[in-house]
Amino acid sequence: MALMVRRVVTGHNAEGKAVVVDDREMDNVIVMPSGNSGALMWVSEETPAGVDSFDDPSNRKMGISPPPGGSAFRVLEVLPGKQAFMHRTDSIDYAIVMKGDAVMLLDDGEEVAMQAGDVMVQRGTWHGWENRSDAPVQIGFVLISSLPPAKHWHADAATP
Question: Could you tell me if residue 1 is inside a domain?
Fold first, then answer.
């Protein structure tokens, strides 16, 4: 079964009052060759992003990375037993496990078990998500364009 996700978008009417401009189940869900499915919720071309018009960017064709200087918001459903697709993007990724249990893998073999309600901040790292359970996992991702990481950056270098 492919991902089903509802998206609500707000905006302003002619008087400047807040209104709902779109409320629907997403129809742009793609099923990837892995069998996993995903939907692009929103994309901004730049930061700060404009909020004065409603040109829905969710049907845009794009890879994993957000536009340079911009952001992307997507929801992914990982099927049971699916192996990690290892990748990295020049972005800060905010990941929210919405449903189920997942394992996030790093390129050195480190693993982090995540469950519904857990959040992760990924900062330009090689990683992948695996589902070792018997139920689908849904994860929301907000990717914000970033500079690439320095070649020899270490976590302790950020400590004063």
Answer: no
| Burial state string for 21-52 with b = 16 or more CB within 10 A and e = fewer than 16 | eeeeebeebeeeeeebbbbbbbbbeeeeeeee
Q: pTM, whole model, 2 decimals?
A: 0.89
**Tokens 């982090």 -> residue:** 112
CB-facing half-sphere around the CA of 137: CA atoms within 13 A: 29
Number of independent structural domains in the chain? 1
In a domain? residue 111? yes
Q: Show Cβ contacts of residue 119 under 8 Å, excluding neighbours closer than 6 positions.
A: 94, 95, 96, 97
pLDDT digits (tens, 9 = 90+) for 84-100: 889 999 999 999 999 99
Instruction: Report DSSP state, residue 158.
Output: G
